[in-house]
Design a protein that fits this description.
Length: 436
């Protein structure tokens, strides 16, 4: 086996020399271009591919698969980790699983670097707690969720579409790939790593901003545990020297003065994953330096980049600690939420909210109570929304030439938002049914 790895390593070094990408040292785990340059440059697309190949070839704990391809032909990768090796989808669904989605917005690269660094660290760690966690849980990474945007340093993908507004309708190749991972692996927590800035001194300038799913259709226990996870992440960020607060909330002297963002939009990852019974968490690191960290001196661009990435590394490590402590309970919570939503859909016992958020009262017109028991789609509508139905695991039945979708299934929170014309982001205007 050692001889095999040596041959693989020699071939990789030779390929790196030919391609112009720096070869990795044979006596230590691979390093990213960002690390080698000490924050001087972001890891290139080619450098990322070589890095991931090196990690997955040298560590039996890590496996990589292609889960999609962008319009410009770049692969979308999923890296799975476990010990002594990853267990695969079937077994992963029976144990706690955490997913990190990195750099959905291509011009927000710090999360991607943090994900590359931490997945490597997990693959080679000799920390007994980490090794034990990998024996009992599955850790997943989508290292670059928008590689075309990262290559162009643009927020959107190559079509200019904001992937992080497409997690309900699933029209982009990138969002489809992420949805497929969530459907197949059923992670208990999903952390979506972003950046914000420039910050506004005093009123909106924390180094880390965090938020939970605010959509009112999210299971209450999922919502409350996601808030608990955010509080855990913020506390540990502060302990590690990074100021942290709620995303979108402007404040002065600890007094809230304005909510600029962070609503219940069902197209956003943290909300969409919450609607799918997962602890969906938004993480945003600041692109501008906090002068409170270095009074009287100006940090170099590289130093600011290093701090941006390290703040995200702190969050990833903190999330893994949370799952070490509460993974089994979170798994039971997720399964319980699925069962509760099936029952609510069958009994018609929970209203549907087409507006509002946990910090914003919905209008009277946005609350439907009692809710529909199901929806009737024409064959044309079913075809138009077929990909989203499949990826959201929404089950259908034929009915006299049309297609019937019952609310009595675990995807109940997604169904009306996707199929009802009252939904802000609905894909088709299906017929809501009062009797099924």
């Amino acid at each position: 086996m050692r001889k095999f790895f040596a041959l693989v390593w020699a071939a990789m070094v030779a390929a790196a020399v030919v391609s112009g990408i720096p070869a990795y040292a044979a006596d230590e785990p691979p390093r990213t271009e960002f690390e080698d340059s000490e924050g001087g440059e972001w890891t290139s697309h080619e450098g990322e591919l070589e890095f991931l190949k090196a990690v997955t070839n040298l560590s039996p704990r890590a496996e990589m698969e292609v889960i999609g391809q962008t319009k410009q032909g770049r692969p979308l990768h999923l890296v799975s980790l476990g010990a002594p090796e990853p267990v695969g989808v079937g077994k992963a669904r029976k144990r706690p699983t955490t997913l990190f989605v990195c750099t959905q917005h291509g011009n927000e690269p710090a999360g991607r670097e943090a994900c590359l660094i931490t997945l490597r660290d997990l693959a080679f760690s000799d920390d007994p707690e980490i090794v034990q966690q990998l024996k009992e849980q599955t850790i997943l990474y989508v290292p670059t969720a928008n590689p075309d945007g990262r290559e162009a340093n643009s927020r959107g993908n190559s079509n200019g579409t904001d992937v992080n507004r497409d997690h309900l309708n699933l029209e982009t190749l990138e969002a489809q790939a992420i949805a497929r991972v969530i459907r197949d692996w059923e992670p208990e927590s999903v952390l979506d790593l972003h950046e914000y800035g420039p910050s506004l001194p005093v009123i909106y300038d924390d180094e880390l901003l965090l938020l939970w799913p605010r959509n009112l259709n999210v299971d209450e226990q999922i919502h409350d545990t996601a808030v608990e996870l955010v509080e855990h992440l913020a506390e540990e960020a502060e302990e590690n020297g990074y100021s942290a607060d709620e995303y979108g909330q402007y404040e002065v002297a600890d007094q809230d003065i304005h909510q600029s963002a962070g609503d219940g939009d069902e197209g956003i990852s943290r909300n969409a994953t919450g609607l799918r019974h997962t602890l969906g968490i938004l993480v945003e690191s600041a692109v501008t330096a906090d002068p409170r960290n270095s009074p009287g001196e100006v940090l170099s661009e590289a130093e600011v980049r290093l701090r941006r990435v390290d703040s995200q590394v702190v969050i990833v490590d903190s999330a893994l600690r949370f799952m070490r402590a509460q993974g089994d309970g979170t798994a039971r919570l997720t399964q319980g939420a699925m069962a509760r939503k099936i029952k609510e859909g069958r009994m018609g016992s929970a209203p549907v909210y087409f507006g509002g958020a946990d910090n914003e009262e919905p209008s009277e017109d946005d609350v439907v109570d009692p809710p529909p028991c199901g929806y009737l789609l024409t064959k044309e509508q079913a075809k138009a929304v077929g990909m989203a139905l499949k990826l959201h695991d929404i089950r259908t039945k034929g009915r006299t030439g049309d297609v019937f979708v019952t609310m009595a299934q675990r995807s109940e929170p997604i169904i009306p938002l996707l199929l009802d014309e009252r939904g802000a982001r609905h894909s088709v205007a299906a017929e809501p049914l009062d009797t099924c």
